[in-house]
Structure formats: structure tokens, C-alpha cells
Amino acid sequence: MPELPRSSKYVSMPHAALDADERNRLVARLNEAYADGAVGSDAYHAHLDRLFSASTLGEVVPVVQDLPSVATHETPALVEVGTTPPGEVAPASAPRPMTTVLLAAAGGVALMVLVVLVLLILL
């Protein structure tokens, strides 16, 4: 039976009330584990008894420890839509045309001239 991490709500808040939604989630996980063969018949019935008699999160720790773990994160969107195989670097983008660079430089010069004119007028 793997030990739950300290960050688990069952360990960090053992005296917190076990609400009906949490109980139902645990029963669903237990049913799935039993259907998949991860939990035996005797353990299944013992865990059901414990789940329905428990009133705090700490009382269901043995049940949660016996259940298969659940993924607590989503796959990042960048990973899902990426076309590059994992571990490989995407090819570099095409270089920008020289006209874009020249327009950006001209815009920067025009902005600098405008700033200098405004400063001269204010002084």
C-alpha cells in the first residue's frame, strides 16, 4: 500500500468532514478499481464499509491508499497541438524580408525625431 504524500488532503486535513460528493467520487474510483481487478472482493467490501461509515477524510486514508492513482493535471495545450515529436526541436521560422526590417527601423527613427521635437517645444 503506497503512502499518501503530506500534500494529500486526506493526510493534511484528516479531521475535515467527508462530504457526500467526495464519498461518491471515492466509491466510483473503488468500483472502477474493483471492475479492473486492482482491488479484490474482500478488500472491496471492507473499503465500501469504511467509506460509508467514515465521517472525516482521515478515516478513508486506507481506502485511498489502496486505490490506483488519478492524474491530477491536464496535458499542456502546447504539447497536444505540437507537430514535432517529443524531444525534438521545431525547425526555425523563415527569415523576415528586408522590407519589414527597414520599415521597423524607419518607424523607430520617426518616433525618435518626434520625441526630440516634443522635448524641444516643452523646453
UniProtKB/TrEMBL annotation:
<dbReference type="Pfam" id="PF08044">
    <property type="entry name" value="DUF1707"/>
</dbReference>
<keyword id="KW-0472">Membrane</keyword>
<keyword id="KW-1133">Transmembrane helix</keyword>
<protein>
    <submittedName>
        <fullName>DUF1707 domain-containing protein</fullName>
    </submittedName>
</protein>
<feature type="domain" description="DUF1707">
    <location>
        <begin position="21"/>
        <end position="68"/>
    </location>
</feature>
<keyword id="KW-0812">Transmembrane</keyword>
<dbReference type="InterPro" id="IPR012551">
    <property type="entry name" value="DUF1707_SHOCT-like"/>
</dbReference>
<feature type="transmembrane region" description="Helical">
    <location>
        <begin position="101"/>
        <end position="122"/>
    </location>
</feature>
